[in-house]
């Protein structure tokens, strides 16, 4: 326990000090941290899933509070919670199936259960159906208890089961934890290989002799372009440098090292150049449920220019960047202001800045935001590791990855504080 | 179209007398005499197109000539002078000028005088049934008619007035047109030509002694002594370039095709002629091979060493060229003024070689200067316009003038151009634009435009409370200097980079932009990044005001920023000053550098959809009205 506590605190510090660069690294580290939290959590005999969820949530709230702008943290926490719920569900479903099988073997009747309450059996049956099969018309029409009630009923089921079979119980609790950790490992795997999965689709989108524009630097974009290059496509890339961080220089260098003809331009020349560009391919910081994108600063301008010239604006996003939240005033609430020193030399202007004059309001403010919000109408296509999607479809995609119970995680965290 | 053509001939009077350089003793006479010849020139001017293109206006020449000349010689010099005091309040620019422009009283007084002369003359000519002066009176004198012209100018567009005047004109001209048939007109023209040729020959004999005798008053004496024939002779000599068939003139109006630098043979030719050694076309971006490569300051020592080989080059021009090359001199107005002043110096020191005429030799000399300047840095549109003005002034110099007179005329022309088209135009723009600033506004500007800076400072002086957002971008970072100056004057500023434009645009209420040039399809050609700012402002429904002097308007059209542009130093891209951590591109090996290119565009073209209004010295116009201004205005300054 103290071990994880130390880990959590360490990670919190890093988040607060913005030591971790990039949402992929953050997501990966978050998932690893949560894995160790899960493995360290002592699971009670009853209600194991609830206990796991409880402990993950407790850590998750603190992580999110540490850097509310880094949405990947919240995404991973929600993913892990969803995994726990799913694993629990499939376990109980399997258990129920076993019970059902025995019941069925006993008498060919429906699962009315000889020693179980009718409600719980029906709930478990419904739950198992909903997880294993797509919802049929029958289940929709039946008066099925809410999906959210499943953990409770499952635990009650486990309870009733626990009375009868104590030997099976310990193995099951270990199995739940084991399954969850397995699934989290898979998630980590997914996060670290999302580049390759996205890059595999590159040839479908980049054609011969095309001109691609990108801004700033994104590992996903780099891999995507290089994958197309490796498939013998020859094309040309314009890289806007992405002030004030100038990550575009880095991307240009990487691309040149891999032999792609690359031209570095200033951000101001984007509008001038975009009339000769076939496609804009950019990375994202996060993708919101409405299909809006939180992206490196400057991309809204690029997206507007692309729309003006009817150039496709393609956003590459790993699955860990999908955020189940809807943005509200994202330019301000999901943004972060960096140091003015990136724009101005302090030595030159320090007398005019906030602390200099001393009389009344300061004359000079410097604004240096980190992110831009690109509304969904400006995005032509999202390419995630599960394929290409329209902005309007993102909400559904997100519904596959997150459980509805966890969406309010952050709000609870803020109201709790 | 004929109405325009004629109307151009008349406003010259106003244009000339509008603001003269600061020497009251000497200048009114020359300006007046200058305004004289073109006026007498106006009938042929108006006629030659008329005969060819069936224009609506046709004026019987006999009546015209006599009326016009008689009216002018009697009316202009005498009552104009006499009434100057009486008309002191008529000059519409006066009140505002003394209050707002903070000029010296003598200055405003002079302009006032000129103005009253203008109006007086205008009335006279009007009463003398000089029908062609009507539209110009309606259009160009609109500020004169209304004493509170500042408010009037700001309140309404000049265009509706103009269209009214046109209607008037059309109604006036209809009966006239009915009178003359095509054959008649042709006959008239023929006879006129013959008369003119004769009078010209005569004038060449008669006017030379008169011209040589007077050194103080430059053009007036020959005219006064010789009376009508001499005046018409001057007109005739001036007319040389004018009475070509209209189609030819049209073609001349069309801007010549620009040199395309991807054309190997022409580039080779240019290279042989050039002074600077062209940098080898190292790894240039394919899309921009048609543009001249950037020449950086590293050529400076080479050029310095070469100075004594260029004996044709005037030192002042040379100095300006070097400043262009090193980038010490930037900004459309500053570059243009520096160039004109250098030319003025060169003209002052000029002497016509034997067996050559001043008109031709000086033109070719100026052409040599210009090509040197182009080698140092491609010309801006505004500079092109100024050069065109100067060349047309040189070619239109009466042959009758002595060399010293001609030089003095040209120098005063240059001064007048700088004063009227740039300095005063800026002041008018500032006053127009300042009315659009209200208390509590948040104004955004991009880069560093001197007009926009003047607007902000003026509005601040007026006591308006507003905030300025200065948006800047690499690699020029001109905004920092602007920011420095604004903060020093006590304006409250916010500084940010272009990428954050969507973030700051929420709070902005107006966007003020400068321009390098405005094309006649409404495209604004300006510092690279301006288009992005205008686009984002448009997306956020923030009005965009482009402030630009009318002399920067150009009749070219352009749709994108690639066909014509200017390339900057590519190495400025890879280095970020003040950021040692950004040095990713330093370590590239040569082989990699082949596939790596740096592109430093200097300008971009903002589509006219993004522009709410263009603030110019003619008032505030929509971008669709640019071709109208170009058409009216270009002729006007070419003919001054």
Give average pLDDT of chain A, whole number: 81
| Order of neighbouring strands in the sheet with most strands of chain A | 3-2-1-4-7-10-11
Structural class based on helices, strands and sheet pairing of chain B = alpha/beta
Query: Could you tell me the radius of gyration of chain A in angstroms?
Result: 25 Å
Largest interface: A-B, 56 and 60 residues
Query: Helicity range of the residues of chain B?
Result: 55-70%
Which blocks of ≥5 consecutive residues of chain A have pLDDT under 50? 105-118, 146-166, 411-417
Strand residue percentage of chain A: 5-15%
- Strand order within the widest beta sheet of chain B: 3-2-1-4-7-11-12
Number of DSSP strands of chain B? Answer: 12
| Quaternary organisation | heterodimer
End-to-end separation of chain B: 19 Å
Q: Using the alpha-carbon principal axes, give the shape of chain A.
A: globular
Described by strand count, sense and barrel closure, the largest sheet of chain B is: 7 strands, mixed
CATH-wise, what's the superfamily of the domain at 436-566 and 601-637 in chain B? Answer: Translation initiation factor eif-2b, domain 2
Write the layout of secondary structure elements.
The complex is a heterodimer of chains A (417) and B (640).
Chain A: H1 2-16, H2 23-40, H3 48-66, H4 71-106, H5 118-132, H6 137-141, H7 150-164, H8 166-199, H9 202-205, E1 211-215, H10 219-230, E2 236-240, H11 247-257, E3 262-265, H12 270-273, E4 279-283, E5 286-287, E6 293-296, H13 299-308, E7 313-316, H14 330-333, H15 346-349, E8 364-366, E9 371-374, E10 381-384, E11 387-389, H16 394-401, H17 409-416
Parallel strand pairs in A: 1-2, 1-4, 2-3, 4-7, 7-10
Antiparallel strand pairs in A: 5-6, 6-9, 10-11
Chain B: H1 2-9, H2 12-18, H3 28-53, H4 61-75, H5 77-82, H6 93-101, H7 105-127, H8 133-139, H9 142-145, H10 149-155, H11 158-179, H12 182-213, H13 220-226, H14 228-238, H15 246-253, H16 264-273, H17 300-305, H18 315-326, H19 332-348, H20 358-376, H21 381-395, H22 403-434, E1 441-446, H23 450-461, E2 466-472, H24 478-488, E3 492-497, H25 501-504, E4 510-514, E5 517-519, E6 524-527, H26 530-539, E7 544-547, E8 553-554, H27 571-574, H28 590-594, E9 596-599, E10 603-606, E11 613-616, E12 619-621, H29 626-639
Parallel strand pairs in B: 1-2, 1-4, 2-3, 4-7, 5-8, 7-11
Antiparallel strand pairs in B: 5-6, 6-10, 11-12
Helix pairs in contact in B: 1-3, 1-8, 1-29, 2-3, 2-7, 3-4, 3-12, 3-14, 4-7, 6-7, 8-11, 12-13, 12-14, 13-14, 18-19, 18-20, 19-21, 19-22, 20-21, 21-22, 22-23
Family (chain A): Belongs to the eIF-2B alpha/beta/delta subunits family.
Main location (chain A): cytoplasm
Protein name (chain A): Translation initiation factor eIF2B subunit beta
């Amino acid at each position: 326990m103290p071990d994880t506590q130390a880990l959590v605190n360490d990670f919190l510090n890093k988040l607060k000090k913005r030591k971790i660069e990039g949402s992929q690294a953050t997501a990966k580290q978050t998932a690893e941290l949560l894995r160790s939290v899960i493995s360290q959590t002592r699971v009670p005999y009853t209600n194991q899933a609830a206990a796991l969820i409880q402990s993950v949530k407790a850590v998750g709230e603190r992580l999110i509070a540490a850097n509310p702008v880094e949405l990947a943290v919240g995404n991973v926490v929600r993913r892990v919670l969803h995994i726990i719920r799913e694993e629990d569900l499939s376990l109980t479903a399997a258990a129920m199936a076993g019970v059902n099988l025995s019941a069925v073997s006993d008498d060919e009747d429906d699962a009315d259960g000889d020693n179980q309450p009718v409600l719980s059996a029906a709930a478990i049956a419904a739950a198992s159906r909903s997880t294993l099969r797509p919802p049929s018309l029958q289940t929709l029409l039946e008066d099925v208890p809410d999906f959210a009630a499943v953990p409770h009923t499952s635990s009650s089921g486990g309870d009733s089961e626990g009375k009868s079979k104590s030997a099976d119980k310990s193995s099951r609790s270990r199995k739940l934890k084991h399954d969850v950790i397995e699934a989290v490992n898979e998630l980590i795997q997914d996060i670290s290989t999302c580049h390759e999965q996205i890059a595999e689709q590159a040839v479908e989108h980049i054609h011969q002799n095309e001109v691609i524009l990108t801004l700033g630097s994104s590992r996903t974009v780099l891999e995507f372009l290089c994958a197309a290059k490796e498939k013998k496509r020859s094309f040309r890339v314009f890289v806007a440098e992405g002030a004030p961080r100038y990550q575009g220089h880095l991307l240009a260098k990487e691309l040149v090292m891999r032999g792609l003809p690359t031209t570095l331009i200033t951000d101001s020349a984007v509008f001038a150049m975009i009339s000769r560009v076939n496609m804009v391919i950019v990375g994202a910081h996060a993708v919101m449920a409405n299909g809006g994108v939180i992206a490196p600063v400057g991309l809204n301008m690029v997206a507007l220019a692309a729309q003006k010239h009817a150039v496709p604006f393609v956003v590459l996003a790993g699955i860990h960047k999908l955020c189940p939240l809807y943005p509200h005033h994202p330019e301000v609430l999901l943004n972060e202001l960096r140091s003015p020193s990136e724009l101005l030399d302090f030595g030159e202007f320090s007398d005019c800045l906030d602390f200099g004059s001393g009389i009344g309001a300061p004359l000079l403010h410097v604004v240096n935001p980190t992110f831009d919000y690109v509304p969904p109408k400006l995005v032509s296509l999202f390419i995630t590791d599960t394929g290409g999607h329209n902005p309007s479809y993102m909400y559904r995609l997100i519904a596959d990855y997150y459980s509805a119970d966890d969406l309010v995680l952050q709000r609870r965290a803020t109201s709790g504080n | 179209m004929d109405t325009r053509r004629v109307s151009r001939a008349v406003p010259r009077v106003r244009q000339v007398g509008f603001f003269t350089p600061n020497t009251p003793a000497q200048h009114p006479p020359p300006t007046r005499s200058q305004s004289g010849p073109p006026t007498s020139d106006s009938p042929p001017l108006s006629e030659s197109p008329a005969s060819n293109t069936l224009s609506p206006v046709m004026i019987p020449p006999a009546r015209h000539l006599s009326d016009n000349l008689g009216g002018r010689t009697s009316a202009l010099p005498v009552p104009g002078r006499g009434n100057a005091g009486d008309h002191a309040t008529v000059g519409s620019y006066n009140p505002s000028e003394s209050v707002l422009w903070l000029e010296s009283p003598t200055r405003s007084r002079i302009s006032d005088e000129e103005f009253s002369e203008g109006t007086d003359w205008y009335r006279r000519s009007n009463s003398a049934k000089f029908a062609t002066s009507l539209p110009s009176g309606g259009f160009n004198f609109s500020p004169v008619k209304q004493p509170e012209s500042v408010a009037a100018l700001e309140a309404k567009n000049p265009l509706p007035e103009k269209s009214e005047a046109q209607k008037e004109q059309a109604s006036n001209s209809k009966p006239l047109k009915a009178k003359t048939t095509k054959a008649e007109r042709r006959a008239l023209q023929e006879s006129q030509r013959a008369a003119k040729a004769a009078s010209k020959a005569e004038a060449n004999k008669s006017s030379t002694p008169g011209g040589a005798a007077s050194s103080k008053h430059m053009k007036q004496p020959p005219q006064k002594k010789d009376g009508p024939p001499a005046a018409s002779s001057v007109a005739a000599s001036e007319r040389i370039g004018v009475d070509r068939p209209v189609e030819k003139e049209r073609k001349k109006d069309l801007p010549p095709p620009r040199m395309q630098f991807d054309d190997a043979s022409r580039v080779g030719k240019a290279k042989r002629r050039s002074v600077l050694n062209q940098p080898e076309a190292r790894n240039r971006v394919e899309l921009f091979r048609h543009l001249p490569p950037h020449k950086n300051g590293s050529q400076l020592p080479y050029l310095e060493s070469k100075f004594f080989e260029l004996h044709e080059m005037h030192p002042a021009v040379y100095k300006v060229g070097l400043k262009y090359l090193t980038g010490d001199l930037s900004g459309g107005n500053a570059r243009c003024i520096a160039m004109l002043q250098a030319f003025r110096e060169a003209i002052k020191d000029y002497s016509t070689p034997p067996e050559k005429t001043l008109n031709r030799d000086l033109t070719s000399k100026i052409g040599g200067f210009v090509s040197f300047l182009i080698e140092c840095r491609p010309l801006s549109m505004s500079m092109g316009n100024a050069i065109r003005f100067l060349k047309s002034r040189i070619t239109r110099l009466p042959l009758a003038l002595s060399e010293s007179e001609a030089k003095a005329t040209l120098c005063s022309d240059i001064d007048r151009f700088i004063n009227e088209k740039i300095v005063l135009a800026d002041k008018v723009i500032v006053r127009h634009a300042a009315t659009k600033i209200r208390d509590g506004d948040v104004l955004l500007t991009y880069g560093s435009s001197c007009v926009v800076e003047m607007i902000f400072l003026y509005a601040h002086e007026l006591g308006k409370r507003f905030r300025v957002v200065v948006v800047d971008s690499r690699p020029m970072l001109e905004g920092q200097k602007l920011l420095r100056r604004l903060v020093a004057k006590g304006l409250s500023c916010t500084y940010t980079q272009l990428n954050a434009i969507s973030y700051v645009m929420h709070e902005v209420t107006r966007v003020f932009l400068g321009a390098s040039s405005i094309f006649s399809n409404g495209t604004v050609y300006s510092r690279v990044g301006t288009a992005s700012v205008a686009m984002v402002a448009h997306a956020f429904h923030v009005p965009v005001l482009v402030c630009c002097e009318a002399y920067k308007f150009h009749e070219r059209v352009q749709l994108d920023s690639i066909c014509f542009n200017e390339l900057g130093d590519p190495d400025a891209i890879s280095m970020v000053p003040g950021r040692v951590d950004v040095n990713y591109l330093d370590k590239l090996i040569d082989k990699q550098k082949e596939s790596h290119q740096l592109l430093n565009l200097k300008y971009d073209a903002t589509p006219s959809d993004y522009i709410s209004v263009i603030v110019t010295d003619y008032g505030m116009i929509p971008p669709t009205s640019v071709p109208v201004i170009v058409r009216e205005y270009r002729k006007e300054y070419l003919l001054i």
